[in-house]
Specification:
The complex is a heterodimer of chains A (500) and B (336). Chain A has 500 residues and is of the alpha/beta class. Chain A has helices at residues 45-52, 75-81, 98-102, 117-131, 146-159, 176-191, 203-209, 232-240, 244-247, 293-301, 323-328, 338-341, 349-354, 369-382, 399-411, 429-444, 456-462, 485-492; strands at residues 5-16, 19-30, 34-38, 60-65, 68-69, 83-86, 164-168, 195-199, 212-217, 220-226, 258-266, 273-278, 282-287, 308-313, 316-317, 331-334, 362-363, 366-367, 417-421, 448-452, 465-470, 473-479. The mean pLDDT of chain A is 89. Chain B has 13 helices and 2 strands; from the N terminus they run ααααααββααααααα. At the A-B interface, strand 2, helix 11 and strand 18 of A face helix 1, helix 8 and helix 9 of B.
Chain lengths: 500, 336
């Protein structure tokens, strides 16, 4: 290891209760290179980066940056040493302007100490122009599209003049034109001798702009290779550890009549969406972050009220005014963010499982605990949920097992149509495969699944038909045979299939 | 993913869980031991009964407040509801014919009318609280703060600021009498504690309020009628506060609009010491709250027996609730 390496992380371990998030991983980034960090969800990429910029403190290991060993205790320290990051989750301060967001914490001041808005706006305008980003620095973040918000994040990270910039899924919300702008920025950073750690799921980008690729899997380090020597298949093999297609089950169930018919549904984040779902099929819903998929299905399920439109269940018009109505009609909704809207994090596994099915467990005024225990044991066996006991507080379970508990919650209500929003997000590969197997089994039992997913392999591998959304509109529908990653991406980023 | 040292962390977490669940009992036992060492008068039947009888009203109120805190809300109006409920109840219990009778048309009614009238007042107050919190989505702090003020004002208005004394013997018996050697306030507390514990732990209502407090959005998605159950718990809390009002006014033989001042604070303190969390919803139990109330009772009693000034007692009480909340934050933070 010589002065060639800008960053050297070795022997990094990070544990959370019940989970070994990082197990002796390493990452070595050379000066003036773009280094891709790849792996499935839950592989540990974001966790390692959070250790690098001070959000987490590793349980063991060394971090050497610019030939200096560092103990990165908080983000401010990391920034001061020359490391900045573009986060995966966009967290703009909505009612402040672009300039204020970029310079938050280091506002331009007048000689007498007050914030100098005029000068700050000018600085921001120069920065944005230099980077080739066409934005007015005085616009409020809340008025920007998600794509532009992401561009502001990029500008902000670059403005720190850091030697190392970590970019975590920087193109998740932007279109091809803006991606070109980003790549130009990255190229000029390289020319200045700076380095970029680039985390992405998008293979094309990896082959376009990165020099080396490091792969993690299930919290362990797999390999580092020059990009030039790799192929797509090699990368997938490293990330998944087996042929990707093994994970998804191919035996399609018998597809029957239309069970759900949504007509011209409009709401806050989606307009005039119509689609039909047939019994026994897996209906995939694809699109970028902010496309309105979650909002659409939440309105179908009754979590929010749509502005207009109709929903028909089994051919009959459904008056769905609350989730309770949907549940009664045989629908179920596994929400996108289990921590936010799914789990009762301080409650027991048992209570998390039975809560949507309470009515079935009532004996007069009292709760029949024996029946509950029987049902929960059955679910635990069927879904292979790993927990020391049903009375374990659910916060101690791994993400995959938590998700299985939530799926059990819905299965106990005996639904006919299951809406799954990002069902395998934040879950290790093993649990993912089990959930896919479960989904296939359910369709063979005559149930219908609507699956929202941002993971293209998952959408392509599991769906019978795919609906693609873009910024609130249904922009296209693809059958299983004709669907490809490129076509979906094209539609999802707003381009028509004619140019695919 | 493999499970190495993480396994040990898991069982350490279990030990933490046990400490967290039963720690409060150990603290209580410790206090009893210290108290009996500090004063020979502590461990006498008379003194112990006194302790429980004195905290029985706070205990009653705390039972309802626990439920409210479990839904991630708070009720600042309990003390004022005590005041307005007790004067309405007392107005029905005054012995007719005296010159102190405030509402001659109400006076002289049988006991059950007084109690029902008082409890209805509490139910109404709770309904208003619940409506504001659940339907208009005002923060519970603000909604019940408004009731804190308005209920007290209503009590003053109702009585024109005057006390209602000369109450029937039946009525006074509630607060002053005993059955089989046990003062009625204590009996009432025991009965309501058992009822409330069953309500919170073995009924659909109970499961739902823990779900609402644990994750309101998730509860909504799970099909729970969040509005309905939130309103119900505030009504229950109002009812119990009113019951407390009946007990205190019958104990002193007089319904006064100024009764109950500060009771909401003591009730919340008891619940929080007992483990109900103000920062995270869905946490809190009746046994915990009872122990919390007993801890306050023993503390007050010990300070009395050792002749500590009442002013010091107030300072210490303040420190205790802050300490209890800090402990609560640490407990919930330590798991992240």
């Amino acid at each position: 290891m010589g002065n060639d390496y800008l960053l050297s992380m070795t022997g990094i371990c990070k544990f959370f209760p019940g989970v070994r998030a990082l197990d002796n991983v390493q990452l070595n980034v050379r000066k003036g290179t773009v280094h891709a960090l790849m792996g499935e969800n839950g592989a540990g990429k974001s966790t390692l980066m959070k250790c690098l910029i001070g959000i987490y403190i590793p349980d063991s290991g060394r971090i050497v940056f610019k030939d200096e060993e560092l103990r990165i205790v908080n983000t401010r320290y990391a920034l001061s040493k020359g490391i900045s990051m573009i986060h995966q989750e966009l967290n703009p301060i909505p009612h402040m302007t672009v300039a204020e967001n970029i310079y938050i914490g280091r506002e331009t001041r007048t000689w007498y100490g007050l914030v100098d808005m005029k000068k700050m706006n000018r600085r921001a305008a120069e920065l944005l122009e230099r980077l080739g980003i066409k934005l007015n620095p005085t616009k409020k973040m809340v008025d920007l599209s998600i794509a532009n918000i992401q561009l502001v994040e990029i500008a902000k990270a670059v403005s720190y003049d850091s030697d190392l910039i970590v970019m975590d899924e920087p193109t998740s919300a932007i279109t091809e034109a803006e991606v070109a702008v980003l790549f130009k920025i990255i190229k000029s950073l390289k020319e200045q001798g700076r380095s970029v750690i680039y985390i992405t799921h998008k293979m094309d980008e990896v082959f376009k702009i990165t020099d080396e690729v490091t792969v993690f899997r299930d919290g362990t380090y797999i390999s580092t290779d020059p990009t030039a020597g790799l192929t797509r298949n090699m990368l997938i093999q490293k990330m998944v550890g087996r042929e990707l297609t093994d994970m998804f089950h191919k035996e399609r169930a018998e597809i029957g009549e239309t069970v759900l018919d949504v007509r011209n549904l409009s709401g806050k984040k989606f307009r005039n969406v119509s689609f039909e779902v047939k019994r026994g099929e897996i209906f995939g819903v694809a699109g970028l972050m902010g496309a309105g998929r979650t909002e659409l299905l939440e309105a179908v399920f009754g979590v929010t009220k749509p502005h207009s439109g109709e929903v028909f269940v089994d051919g009959k018009k459904a008056s769905i005014r609350s989730p309770a109505d949907s549940i009664r009609l045989g629908l179920a909704l596994l929400t996108e963010d289990r921590k936010l809207t799914g789990l009762y994090i301080n409650a027991m596994v048992r209570d998390n499982m039975m809560i949507a099915n309470m009515k079935a467990y009532m004996q007069g005024l009292f709760v029949n605990f024996r029946k509950i225990d029987a049902d929960c044991e059955r679910m635990r066996d069927q879904l292979r949920i790993r927990t020391p006991s049903l009375k374990q507080i659910i916060k101690y379970l791994s993400g995959g097992n938590q998700q299985k508990v939530l799926i059990s919650r819905w299965l106990l209500t005996g639904p006919r149509i299951l809406i799954l929003d990002e069902p395998t997000r934040g879950i290790d590969v093993g649990a993912k495969a089990e959930i896919y197997r479960l989904m296939t089994e359910l369709t063979h039992q005559g149930k219908t699944i609507i699956m929202i997913s941002s993971e293209l392999p998952e959408i392509l591998g599991m769906s019978d038909r795919i609906m693609v959304m873009h910024e609130g509109d249904k922009i296209g529908e693809l059958g299983r045979a004709e669907a490809t990653q490129e076509k979906i991406l094209h539609l999802a980023t707003g381009m028509s299939l004619a140019t695919a | 993913m493999s499970k190495g040292p993480a396994d040990h962390k898991l069982s350490r977490a279990s030990i933490n869980a046990i400490l967290r669940k039963y720690g409060i009992f150990f603290i209580f036992l410790g206090m009893v031991i210290i108290a009996s060492l500090l004063s020979p008068a502590f461990l006498t039947k008379l003194n112990l009964i006194n302790i429980v009888r004195q905290m029985s009203i706070i205990g009653l109120i705390a039972l309802g407040v626990t439920g409210v805190i479990v839904t991630a809300g708070i009720d600042l109006s309990s003390g004022s509801v005590v005041g307005v409920a007790c004067v309405v109840a007392a107005s029905f219990a005054q012995i007719p014919g005296g010159n102190r009778v405030l509402y001659p048309q109400f006076a002289g009614n049988p006991l059950y009318i007084s109690i029902i009238a008082g409890c209805l007042v509490g139910v109404l107050a709770g309904f208003i609280n619940g409506f504001l919190v659940a339907k208009t989505k005002i923060p519970p702090f603000i909604a019940t703060l408004g009731m804190f003020s308005a209920a007290r004002g209503a009590a003053m208005l109702f009585t024109q600021g005057r006390p209602l004394s000369n109450l029937s013997d039946d009525y006074n018996f509630i607060g002053q009498g005993d059955i089989w050697g046990l003062p009625i306030p204590i009996l009432l507390l025991i009965i309501m504690a058992v009822v409330t514990h069953i309500l919170y732990s073995r009924t659909k209502f109970g499961k739902y309020i823990y779900a609402i407090g644990g994750n309101e959005q998730a509860a909504h998605v799970s099909g729970i009628n969040v509005t309905k159950y939130k309103m119900m718990i505030y009504v229950y809390a109002g009812f119990l506060a009113a019951l407390g009002g009946v007990v205190i006014s019958s104990r002193i033989g007089s319904g006064q609009p100024g009764l109950g001042v500060g009771y909401e604070f003591d009730a919340i303190t008891a619940a929080v010491i007992g483990g109900a969390s103000l920062s995270a919803g869905g946490i809190g139990t009746i046994p915990g709250t009872i122990v919390g109330a007993l801890i306050i009772g023993v503390l007050n009693n010990t300070l009395d027996l050792t002749n500590v000034s009442a002013y010091w007692q107030q300072i210490i009480k303040g420190m205790i609730i802050v300490g209890a909340v800090i402990l609560d934050q640490q407990k919930n933070k330590g798991d992240k």
